[in-house]
Design a protein that fits this description.
222 residues; Rossmann fold; disordered N terminus
Length: 222
């Protein structure tokens, strides 16, 4: 039996009607919670939280108008006391870290079982954080690694050399790279010779593989 008797007010927001309907039904079955509003976008959720001052808010990470993190950031700026749990289908590492920086009480994936979601909300209602280590710590560590690798390349290669390297990874010839960057084919060759030495590769294929890995790490940090 729950130790709460519908004492925990909650606002729920998700732009997918089926998901929102499922969340509403789940919360209405739990006597701990009193659903005060269900919203289909971040702007509605923010207004409901401002007006109703619920204890909790369960917010979809990706919503129209304002996403869950933007709502959370606004609540923090306004010093509102509603505890926020972010709900997401999937999250990139940089999204997890960005969310953590705004100090949510919880983050949970939509693939979680209904009982897990209720456990999460009960924990948050009791003042506990729900930030799974396998989700959060892993994302922070991977992002740090990506940032470190990107910084290493930036410290070794000039911006022009990085640009040439990335063009090579697109499969362009020296002539085509020169045309794209408005430099001569000879200048491209000189740059490539320098790049090979700096990153420790001996041919165009190896450089392309190096560049693709760099590009993926760069994308993961932005």
């Amino acid at each position: 039996m729950s130790r709460y008797i519908r004492s925990v007010s909650i606002v729920v927001a998700d732009d997918h009607p089926i998901v929102l309907g499922g969340l509403v039904a789940l919360l209405n079955e739990d006597k701990a919670f009193r659903l005060t509003a269900s919203c289909t976008n971040g702007s509605e959720a923010l207004e409901a939280i401002r007006t109703l001052s619920p204890n909790l808010a369960l917010l979809d990470f990706n919503m129209p108008k304002l996403n869950g993190v933007q709502v959370l950031k606004t609540l923090n700026a306004e010093n509102l006391s509603t505890r926020v749990c972010l709900l997401a289908a999937s999250l990139a590492d940089r999204e997890i870290v960005a969310a953590i920086n705004e100090r949510p009480f919880g983050i949970i994936l939509k693939e979680s079982a209904p009982d897990a979601l209720l456990s999460c909300l009960h924990a948050i209602a009791a003042g506990q954080k729900w930030l799974p280590a396998n989700l959060v710590d892993g994302a922070i560590e991977r992002l740090r690694e990506h940032q470190s690798e990107v910084a290493k390349v930036s410290n070794v290669l000039s911006p022009r050399e990085i640009e040439i390297m990335l063009r090579v990874a697109e499969g362009l010839s020296n002539k085509e790279v020169g045309s794209k960057l408005n430099i001569s084919e000879g200048t491209v060759k000189m740059h490539l010779h320098s790049i090979y030495q700096k990153v420790g590769v001996s041919n165009r294929t190896s450089l392309a593989n190096f560049a693709i890995a760099y590009r993926e790490r760069l994308a993961a940090t932005n």
